[in-house]
Amino acid sequence: MEAKQTQGQTFEGVVVKSAMKDTVTVAVSRYVKHPKYKKYQTQTRKYLVHNPGNTVQVGDKVEIRQTRPISKNKHFVIANRIAAVSDNS
Q1: What is the rounded distance in angstroms from the CA atom of residue 21 to the CA atom of residue 51?
Q2: 70 found inside a domain
Q3: Helix, strand and coil percent figures for the chain, each rounded to 5
Q4: Whole-number percent of the chain with pLDDT over 70
Q5: Which domain holds residue 63?
Q6: CATH number for the domain including 18?
Q7: Local structure of 73: helix, strand or coil
Q8: For residue 88, is it within any domain?
Q9: For all residues of the chain together, what is the average pLDDT?
Q10: Dist. CA 61–CA 84, nearest whole Å
Q11: Is 2 inside a domain boundary?
Q12: pLDDT for position 88
């Protein structure tokens, strides 16, 4: 009998920090309705994401996918880069 792979969660977010080796911080925003006041607000959560080879930069929009625990706080890996930051200096 073969073990069945489950997909896990996927999110889209923006890289906000890349100061560590093989790790980036990705901010994922959600648009949610407040239960009491019925007003919509943006909630942001930051995830530590495995970035093998340091391929993405700050400002890139990426898709992240849940994986096995890589370290104490890293449970996501970069699935693909959606949009790269443009260098208009």
Answers
A1: 8
A2: yes
A3: 0, 55, 45
A4: 90
A5: 10-83
A6: 2.40.50.140
A7: coil
A8: no
A9: 91
A10: 6
A11: no
A12: 61
Residue 14 to residues 4, 26, 37, 51, 59, Cα–Cα distance (Å): 31, 5, 28, 13, 6
The dihedral of CA 45, 48, 53, 58: what is its sign?
Answer: positive
- Going by pLDDT thresholds of 50, 70 and 90, the confidence category of residue 1 is low
- Residue 61's DSSP bridge partners are 14, 83
18: which residues sit within 8 A by CB, 6+ positions away? 24, 25, 51, 54, 56, 57, 58
- List, for residues 26-61, the tens digit of each pLDDT value: 999 999 999 999 999 999 999 999 999 999 999 999
Is residue 17 situated within a structural domain?
A: yes
> What pTM, to 2 d.p., does this model score?
0.84
**What total of structural domains would you count in the chain?**
1
- Per DSSP, the residues of 22-42 read TEEEEEEEEEEE-TTT--EEE
Residue partners of 88: CB distance under 8 A and separation at least 6: none
Q: What is the pLDDT of residue 67?
A: 95
